[in-house]
Every structure is written in structure tokens, then in C-alpha cells.
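Morning!

As promised:
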Amino acid sequence: MTTIEDVADVTTEVKIEMQRRMLRIRHFDLRAIEVQARGLMPGSVHTSIGHEAAIVGACMAVNTDDYMTGYHRSHGHPIGKGSKLGPLFAELLGRADGVCGGKGGSMHLADFSVGSLGESGIVAGSIPVAVGAGLSAKMQKNGRVALCFFGDGAANAGPFHESLNLAAIWKTPTIFFCENNGFAVSFSAKEAMAIEDIADRAAGYGMPGVIVDGQDILAVHSVVTEAVDRGRSGLGPTLVEAKTYRFREHSELMRMAVGYQYRPVEEVQEWEQRDPIVLLADRLLQEGSVTEKELQDLEDEVAAEVEVAVQFALDSPFPDPSEAFENIYASPIPVRGVTR
Amino acid sequence: MTTIEDVADVTTEVKIEMQRRMLRIRHFDLRAIEVQARGLMPGSVHTSIGHEAAIVGACMAVNTDDYMTGYHRSHGHPIGKGSKLGPLFAELLGRADGVCGGKGGSMHLADFSVGSLGESGIVAGSIPVAVGAGLSAKMQKNGRVALCFFGDGAANAGPFHESLNLAAIWKTPTIFFCENNGFAVSFSAKEAMAIEDIADRAAGYGMPGVIVDGQDILAVHSVVTEAVDRGRSGLGPTLVEAKTYRFREHSELMRMAVGYQYRPVEEVQEWEQRDPIVLLADRLLQEGSVTEKELQDLEDEVAAEVEVAVQFALDSPFPDPSEAFENIYASPIPVRGVTR
Amino acid sequence: MSTVRTSYLDANLGAIASEMHRDPSVFFMGQDLRAGVFGNFPVDEFHADRVRSLPISETGFLGAAIGAAMTGMRPIVDMTFSNLLYSAMDQIVNQAAKLRYMSNGQARVPLVILASLYYGGNQAAHHADRPISLFTNSPGLKIVAPTTPDDVRGLTLTAIREDDPVIIFRDSNVQGVREEISAEARTIPFGLADVKREGTDVTIVGIANGVRLGMRAATQLETEGVSVEVVDPRSLVPLDVDSILRSVQKTGRVVVVDPSPLTCSFASELVATIAQEAFGSLKAAPERVTGADVPTPFSSPLEHSTLPNVDRVVAAVRRVVA
Amino acid sequence: MSTVRTSYLDANLGAIASEMHRDPSVFFMGQDLRAGVFGNFPVDEFHADRVRSLPISETGFLGAAIGAAMTGMRPIVDMTFSNLLYSAMDQIVNQAAKLRYMSNGQARVPLVILASLYYGGNQAAHHADRPISLFTNSPGLKIVAPTTPDDVRGLTLTAIREDDPVIIFRDSNVQGVREEISAEARTIPFGLADVKREGTDVTIVGIANGVRLGMRAATQLETEGVSVEVVDPRSLVPLDVDSILRSVQKTGRVVVVDPSPLTCSFASELVATIAQEAFGSLKAAPERVTGADVPTPFSSPLEHSTLPNVDRVVAAVRRVVA
Ligand SMILES: Cc1ncc(C[n+]2csc(CCOP(=O)(O)OP(=O)(O)O)c2C)c(N)n1
Ligand SMILES: Cc1ncc(C[n+]2csc(CCOP(=O)(O)OP(=O)(O)O)c2C)c(N)n1
Ligand SMILES: [Mg+2]
Ligand SMILES: [Mg+2]
């Protein structure tokens, strides 16, 4: 496992921005949980809590105009890439000011203004799309890369295989970034594969496969930076596997059979000891780059920012029902089956 | 590449049976080409010519009641497994006495009497089926294995990936046997993958991957025998990659753009020098186990046998049109849309 | 006759469990099955081999189920969300549906596929499709869409005992419905429509939750003096054309209610069949109350405007009897 | 106006080539494309990047085409046999069709998918499906099924210039048809049916090769004194309902011809729409002449008994005008 000790190239400023974005994700998702518990948020909510370092470390290794695809657990990714929080939260609430006008919801956040091409509720569904975005960048020689996020569960799906192979033969600048949190809902990656590391599959496609500590944002950032460099210089794709953990259940409000336990309590606790936000805070303090007070101010600032976003979202009206029939096509056609 | 020198365990009798089955395939397909050229055979014809050692070497490493799945290039596989030739040829002609009553044709030969569960015109389509046959054998503890044939092209398809992973975690007694003839129609495996050997993908699933000279029937037989043993003793699946070559074009009568050449003439000639039937004949002669005359007699015998099959097929009537509406379901239902 | 009170989902899962007790070749696979995410199945009553949780490999495990079915087992696969059927489409449509036919009856494929229709609950476009007609237009499958606890139990038993591939569409809007049903389970044959309510003025044929919308509309219309007959085809392939025609011949008017998008829906099939076969009996233009031809939006006001509801059914009936 | 004699397939590929010359963002992908296995495309006129042969990864490359389309390119993907659409089903139905909607118009997906219907020529069940209605029931796609060289050229040009995902179904039974067409190419808008032949007694609406069967039946029926109007919807989504209704309102009788299996076919959609919207004009029960609900058998006598043909169309018309 790569853990990067030499991080001289990441400035304190950048590290603080990393911390800010991780905090944004954490607070955003904590508020989502809370608002959902109050009965105000429809649909299912899969939080990014625990994955913040993996997400932000990767997102901050690319530019705003680089492409990104997410998956069902992707509240955090547009935040990592710099999206405005208000429209994201409004989207979770299905409101008119949602980033997708309330049509997408939690699993389909898309924000083209920051290169976020969308997310897929179908596991592995957006992986081929990221290959195409990379191919397109290459054909248009615009120097962009495509950052493709997915979970360990997706690595057993056919689209993963076809996509990695295509990206390899086409040498697309795609970074396949697997957030391996050890489980697909209740199903352990240990049961789902007869191997330990998803990164080992890279060899079957002729691309580098790198394992990184997903709780260590600087390690993630370094590994992804290298993969991005490879991509931009025409050397093709990389598979990055970040070992991480989700601190919450698969989705909020999900019910399992009474007494069914798929994660040992000790395992959960062990990982909680490796909270990515605490880890970076500790590091910053150790380095002497920030004070406790400055960190607290940062968190307060972020909390306030999220609070504004939540309020913006709650204040946003529901979309007009007739909006359901808009934006299906770029060149609209009569919609059939609209019952009178 | 595994080439087996120590073949003490294969008796002369078995070797002669191997030669017989390879000859059957060769003559069967040569007659198919000829009958098609005379305009008597409908549909497309993909011959097994050049692949005989891979096919027979593998088929003779399993028992008649072991399961087998084929693919679009699978005239040879049921023959290798011991099917009667007449009904197979009649099937190619769409006749009533065809092994599938004329419903299946060249790409869908199935002969349950020899464990042949069918073939798939959809590349990679039968790979998952073979995992299930293996799972079923395991659950029923009937000691059977499932031998799954497919081409190099199939190894880039999603179902390959999902199947190998499932077989690995379930430890099904499935032998994934890839006949790598270097091309998917006109598309070279070198273009289709950024790696050299499909066997290398096995590591990504935690199963052994073995490369074998597909022109050397004894080598194939030995490797598959080992994989079958692994399967029967509960150790799970194996991926076997046989390097082989098709001596004919992708399919008979297929047209490509004028002048388009995807295989260098020298490459074709080089492989033709490694005709699997000639190679085994040479070996048998070298060993002094047979005489030239005996080999000639064997070939004549097979040619006669194939001739009888062809005649049987040509003599068979076309099925009655009403047969089209039979055997859709095990418990029949009224067929809708039968135009008056 | 003693009865039990049971929900639709429990009746479905209960039928599976009882068949598993009866026949050792039946086994059950699904994602997170052992965790009980999609209903409480009595996991512990069976050997772990027979209740399998699955990795995310829809093509692979659906195909594996086919292979197992062809070789002596009777697998049941819960695909959970109907949208996930697309990920296994090739195996379902090219393999499961065709293997028997292509082999001229050598293969039998006793496979049951469960697929839930989770619309109307903010699941958004990747989890809320109603792709029934994609499969009814793919010959070789049998397809049922039961709407009551009793029906789902009886049709599940039949499905498991059939030697053919069967898809059971479970409408999530009926999965929670509880009903008093006979304690003794009985199989319900495929191809037998059920008149859920008798009436004389107009026939409502409902697909999936369309039956419940039809029943509610019927109750409301009764107060206006309109007598509605509600027919539930229950099995779509095979289809009990005769019973449906019989009702329409009696009432002369028909509204079909189907949650799927309109174009090429099963509602369209029924209206076409009725127009072709019972033309002389029709006293008014048939109507379809279906989903709109749009992907499913997330937000409630948007989603609801794309789906049939009781008011729309009532309005359609009023037009038809006007 | 000068004309050229061209085949349907050449007109289709020619339109692609001309758009590629016009617009550098258009590129073409397909299995064995460079080898010309599925028609002669002028490969050498373009940079190799823009004419891509593909490995067997339907989900992967279809999805890649979607990603490219969303980021400034205009990919065209030849899926060749329509049965291979199933292997990319999830990408087509869950991604291509929905991405624009789910993103509320942020995404545009200018993607053209070519899919050939190769039935009637002993291709057997894995290569001979006509799965048109699986996609017309999946909202978010545009779908055309041109039947003449002129139509396929004009609709291909439109498809490539559209900012939406379009499937072009090419019926192999019309791919060889040669016709004199104007040398100057013109786009044909989607949603515009074409009356291929005017008549007064009965309307035949044809889907794909159903149009040709309808034309031949019309010629034959003319000698019996039956005047047949043949309508070719050309684009199925959007559908020119008005033109179809107008014809049926004129003739009062309709036969729909569609090579797909009956249940939930586009033929069923048309009959349902006509029955609902033009009920008052219908003088006789509408008829459907479609494929049977069976997988496609290999042997000719079997296959032909499962497909529509001129005799069956003639017989249906005779019943309708009787
Ligand atoms: C193709 C597909 N199969 C199954 C599901 C149901 N499902 C949703 S999330 C999930 C688990 C995904 O696990 P993973 O990819 O590891 O992501 P994580 O939730 O752990 O972040 C499953 C099985 C789905 N949405 N899509
Ligand atoms: C899923 C799928 N994609 C494409 C095709 C068209 N096709 C038929 S055979 C073939 C090449 C197969 O190559 P390979 O697997 O190497 O087998 P070979 O013909 O070389 O024996 C292709 C592309 C198909 N039948 N199925
Ligand atoms: Mg996971
Ligand atoms: Mg090959």
C-alpha cells in the first residue's frame, strides 16, 4: 500500500482547502441524514461519510474542467470538485433549484459547470461513460482527463471489465478510481472476489494498478496526480484502488433482517479511528501549519456554509408538475402518454 | 507455454481415437464448405478447421456426461464430445432430422445425449451458462464438470469477467477453455487487448491460468485433464488458453472490403505448417505406434463415415412449417401472432 | 377454511420457502438476500448453498441460473429493481427465452426471475422503470404480474413448478398490501385472468398496480351510478384473451390501466387485441391510462404527473361511458 | 435535378461519410468496420481515429460513445445485428436515454446507433430479432426505421445532426434495394410519415420491411379493385400520429404490417392508437400482420411460417374490406 511521506509539493494552502472540502462533504451529509430523519427528504440517501479523503484527494488532483463521473454514493464527488452546495442539497430535496431541477435526486447529481457528467444509480453504469469522456478529450486534444469513481462492488460487473480494456487499448486519459469500502451493501468484497485487491485486476488489461490508503488524503492526492500525469501525457489509464470504509450503513433508513450483522463492531471502530478529517487535522497540527483555533474556525465556517445551503434548499419551491415533460430531448418532440 | 513431453499416460488407442475425432471434424467441415458452396446450405458457416487439437484434446479429457457449452464456431465441439454426425450435418441443412430439428442451425448445435448444452451465436453468451452447469454439478454432487469453449474475442466481453469471478468465488468445476486464434473476425487480439495472453486475466479472479499449444493435442489433453481434476476435487475453475489458428476465413462466404488483409500471408502459412492433424500423425508415426497405411485407413474410414452423415442429412426432409410453433415451452401455451 | 393474514411480499417469499422445503432442487439467489434487504426470507431454514447472496454480476448470475436450470436445478433469482433486468438482458432474452426452442426441446429451463417495479416513491430514473413489455415482446418467456397476496402465492408456486423461464413482476405499490387468505396454499394456473369485480357498464383491465387503481376508481364510480368490471389478466404470457374479450363483449367499453410508458406498453397490446377481436362489441373508443413516455423523475410532483392515478382512471371511464 | 442510383445500405453509409466530411466531431465505430464486413464505408477518406473497429465489448463501447457524445463528439455506433443491442441494453436504456433528463438538460447526447434487422435469411434465433418495441417503450430515445434509399439518407443526416440519441433500425430485407435518388442530399425531419402510395379503400401502415410487403400487396390488390393507401411512419419516436389518423379517417380500414413478434409490437401500438383516436372512422376491425411470438428458427420453412409475407397481408386486407 502506497502511503506518501514525501508531500513537499502540497502547500499548506492546498491542504487547508482539502480539509475544507472534506468538511463540506461531512457536514453536507450529516445534514442530509438529519433532514431525511425529519421526513423532509424523499428517496434513498447514501452518504460519503468516511470516504472524504479518497474523494477530495482525487478531485483536487484534477482541474475543474476535467471530466468526472460518480456513482450511487456520490454526494461527495461534486462537492470535492467544487460544486455549489445549495443546488446540490436542493436536488436531494427534489426542489426546483436543485442542480438537476429535482429530476435527478441523490443518485443523479450532475453539475457540468465543474465537469461532473453525472452519477449512476446502476452500479458500474458510469464507468463506460468515463472511458468515452477520456476518448473524447484525447480526440479533441483538449488535455483533459476523466476521473471515474466507483465502489468495490462495481469491480465485479461486466462494464468494469469492458471499460478498462477499452481504455487500455485506446490509451484514454481515464483514471479508474475505486473506493473499496469492503462491502457492497451487506456483501463483503472478500466473499465477492477470490482475490484481495481490486488493483490486481489492472494487470489483465495492461495498465498500472495502484493501491492507496483511502483515509490518507495526501497519499490519494499523490497517486492520482501521478495517474493524471500519465493520462495527460498520452500514456493511458490507471486503476487506483483506495482502501476506505463507510462510517454509516449502506443507505440511511435501510432495513436489514433483525440481528443481521455483516460488519464486526471492532472493524467499524478500528476504521472510525482512521477518520480522514481527523487524520489531516492531526497532520496539519503536527506540521505546525495551523492552530486548533484555525481548524475550529474552518469547521465553523463550513458548517455555516452548509447551513446556508440547507436553508436555500428548504426554501426552494417544488418544481411545477409540467416540468416533468421538459428536457427529455434537446430537440423536443410531443410527449405521448401524458394522461389527461 | 506448456508443451507436454511426458505423455506416458495417454495410450496409443486413445491417441488414435483423438486422431479419429480430429479427422471427423476436419472432414465434416470440409464437406460443410463444399455443400454450402453448392448452394445447399443456408446461413453462415464458421468452421473448426485448424482448431481440432484444441477441441478434441479438451473434449477427450472429460466424460460423456460432463457438461459442455460451445460458441458460434462450434461444429467441432459436439463431434469432439462424441455426437452422431448425421443429425449434426442435418442440422446445418435445417432438416427435420437435425439434432435440433432444424431450429438451431450451425451456431446452435445442442446434443444433450453427450452433455452438449448448446452453443451461442452471441459471443460470450454461453460462458455464464457453463458456470451454472458447474454450480449445479457441485450442488448435486454428481461429480461432473463443465467445459466451456469460447474464442479470444469473448475474453473482452463483460460476461467473461462476471463468469470467471462467480466461478472462482463459488469454486465451480468449470474449465474455461479459450481458443485463442488471434482474431475476432478481422480484429486482431493484439489490437483488442493491451496484453499478450488471455491466461493472465485468471490472476484477477484468483484462479490458475494456463497457456497451452493449441495445435498439440497431447499438451491440450494434459492441461485440461489437470483442470478437470482440480474441478472434480473441489478446487474450482481453471482458465486454459490454447493458442491456435483458424485455417479458413471467419466464415465461409463472408465478404470483406476488396484488398483488405488482416492476416499476413506468412503468418497463415506458418500456422498451416502446424496442422494439428499432421502433428499428431507425425508423432504416432515417430512413436511407431501406427503405420502410414493405418493412418490412411483411418482417414478413409472417417471420410466414409462423414459421407454417410452428409447423405443422411441431404436425404432428410425439411421440417413441416407447423413445427415452428412447437417446443417453445415445456408446458405449451397458445402462440400469438401466427398470421392466418 | 382457516385463513391467515399476510402481505403480498410475505406471500411471495413464503411460497418460495415452501417450495424449497418440498423440492431440494429449488434454490434462491439475490443480492443481499441473506441480509433480508428485500424482504424477510427464512434464510436459516435452509442450507447456505440454497440461499445465495450475490456479487454485482447480473449477466453472470442470471446466466449461471440458466445453466443450473438446464442441468437439474430450479433456481429462483431476485433481480430486485426491474431496471437491473437490462444488465442481464442478453441472458434473459437470448439465452433463457430461446435455449429450449433452439435445442428443439432438449433443454428445459425451470427458472424464476423476480423483478420489482419500484415506481412512485422517488426512486428516480435508474430504479423506477416498468419494462414489462420489453419482455412480453421477447418470445420464450412466461410473464406474470400478480396483484394480491393470494395471487402472488398461487402464481409463484406455479412458476417454480413450471419447466419454463418465468418472470414475476412485483409492483412495489402492492407489495405491502395485506389480506386474509386461505391457510392452505393452492397453485393458480397461468393464462387465467381473474375478474376482480363484476360490473356491466365498462371494463377496466389493470396491469400490476393498475388493478388497484381500477378497483378504487370502480368504487368511486359506483357512487355516480357507473358499474365497472375490473379484470386482472394476472399472467401476461400466456394471456387469457378470452376472458378479457368476454368482459368487453358484455360491457362494450374498456379502459386499460398500466403503469408502463405508453408506447408499446401492454396496455397498447390489450387495446389492439380488443379492437381487433371485439370490434363489433365496442360502443366507444377504448382508452389507455398509462405512464407517460418519459424517464422517471425524482421529485414527487414531477413523478406523480407521469404516472396513472385514480383520478385519471375515473376521468377515462367517464369519457368512455359518456 | 440530377439523380444517382444507389442502394439503401450505400445511401446510409454515404450519409455518414458526408457528415464526417462536414463535421470533424462526427466519428464512426463498429466491429470489423475497417474491414468493411457490414458494407463498404470509405475508410481511407478519414483519419483512423474516426473509423474505429471494436473489440467485443458492446456495453463498453456503447457507453464510451455516450461519454464522447456528452463531451463534444458526435459518435455513430454500428451495433450490426439488433440482437447485440441486448448486450448494451443498460447503457442504451439507462444511460443514453436518460442522461439528458436526469441532468435536467445539462447533458446532450448526440449519439447515433445503427442496428440491423437480419431476419428471413436463416440467421437463427441469436441473429434475427426485431426488438424495435423494446426501445420505443424506453423513453428518451428517438427511433427511426427507414425503408428506402432516399429515406435512409435523409433520416441518417438528421439523426447525426440531432443532439439526441437516435437508433436507426435497418431492415436487412431493404438494405439491398436500389433506387434512383436525387444527387443532392436533403435531410428528412423526424416525425413525418410518408404516404408511399395513395389509395381510398384501406390503409396499410408498414413498419420496416412491412412497407415493402404493403406496397406489393397493394399492387396485387389493385387488380382485384381494392385501392390501398400505404403509409410509412419512417420515424417511430417521434410518431406522426396525425398523418396516420388522417389516412385511416379517409379509408376507414387499416392493416398494420410489422416483422416483430406480435405482443407489444409497434403494430399493436399503432392499432391501439388508431382504435383510441380514430374509433369513429373505423368501418372494420383493424388487423395486425406481424411476426409470431416465437424465437426465430433457422430452417427456411420454419422461419417463413413465423414472418409476415405478401400473401398474409393480402389476406388481411381482404378480411378488412370484406
Ligand atoms: C447493476 C446494479 N446491481 C445492483 C444494484 C443494487 N445496489 C445498489 S448499491 C449496491 C452496492 C454497491 O456496492 P459498491 O459498488 O461497493 O458501492 P458502495 O455502496 O459500497 O459505496 C447494490 C448492490 C444496482 N444499483 N446496480
Ligand atoms: C456479443 C457479440 N458481439 C459481436 C458479435 C459478432 N461476431 C460474431 S463472431 C465474432 C468474432 C468472435 O471472435 P472470437 O471470439 O475470437 O471467435 P472466433 O470467431 O475467432 O473463433 C463477432 C465479432 C456477436 N455474435 N456477439
Ligand atoms: Mg463498497
Ligand atoms: Mg478468435
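Chain D has two domains: 3-182, 194-321.

Hope this helps with the figure draft.
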